Amino acid sequence: SGNADAFGNKVDHKIIGIDPGAGEMKLTDKVIKDYELSNWTVQSGSESTMIAALDKAIKKKEPIVVTGWTPHWMFQKYDLKYLKDPKGIYGKEEKIHTVVHKGFEKKDPNATKVLDQFSWTADDMGKVMLSIQNGTDAKKAAAQWVKDNADKVSAWTKGANKVSGKSIKLGYVAWASEIASTNVVAAVLEDLGYNVTLEQLGAGQMWAGLAKGSDDAIVAAWLPTTHADYMKQFKSKVTDLGPNLEGTKLGLVVPSYVKIDSINDLKD
Ligand code: PBE
């Protein structure tokens, strides 16, 4: 790469990634292969290390490229754009599904009914994410949203009964979107009398835990693309209750002041 002006040289040919178990990290490896970016590496970390790097670069108006996704408050806080993905590696718009351990639907049809009826929009989720991002404790932010959206919540709990201290365990990953959704569902189940345990895990552990039954349910399955490998691996051990949110997106994200527009432009 003799081109000193190449974007890659300005960022040390490094994409700032997130946790290694995230579906988006596997897809980003495929991006490197399929777009022939062999001199690029993907730095793993977490959502918060990725955001910290992005924040630092934007404050100095420096170039940076990160793995990003929607819904995420980062698009409210910063002026960002997705790099075009002409090969479509990150897939089309997808959905977030609710998935339970196989057999949970028979073991607790009441909770399953609520989990199955749980469905909201990116706007709804955005409100909870923003409140958490502004410093409100996740549990409080979720409880407040539930209080402010009694009409929506009553559609989720329609036909479900109150219980007295029945236990349910929800697995999730510390991604802003999943912190918001999982805490909201937990608040709704708690209002019905459930004793809810939230277990924060890596993405691989979350899927394996659900398959094993150490967790009862997740509301964090990004399908059909992002978690395709996990779904394929654990298909016979889980029951997919369908989408709870539509219209998500993943991709490589840069600040709007960066001149490049496409993943193809990452090539020197
Ligand atoms: N994400 C957010 C996850 C799903 C939710 C895009 C970082 C992933 O890549 O697995």
Structure description:
This protein has 268 residues and is α/β, with parallel strands linked by helices. The chain has two domains: 7-92 and 250-266, D-Maltodextrin-Binding Protein, domain 2; 94-248, Dipeptide-binding Protein, domain 3, CATH 3.10.105.10. It is built from twelve helices and nine strands. It has helices at 7-10, 23-34, 47-59, 74-77, 104-107, 109-117, 122-133, 138-148, 150-156, 176-191, 203-212, 228-234, and strands at 14-16, 41-43, 66-70, 80-82, 94-101, 167-172, 195-200, 217-223, 238-255. The strands form three sheets. Strands 3, 4, 5, 8 and 9 form a five-stranded antiparallel β-sheet that branches. Strands 1-2 form a two-stranded parallel sheet. The longest helix has 16 residues, at 176-191. The radius of gyration is 20 Å and the shape is globular. It binds 1,1-dimethyl-prolinium. 1,1-dimethyl-prolinium binds at residues 18, 22-24, 69, 175, 177, 203, 222, 226, 250.
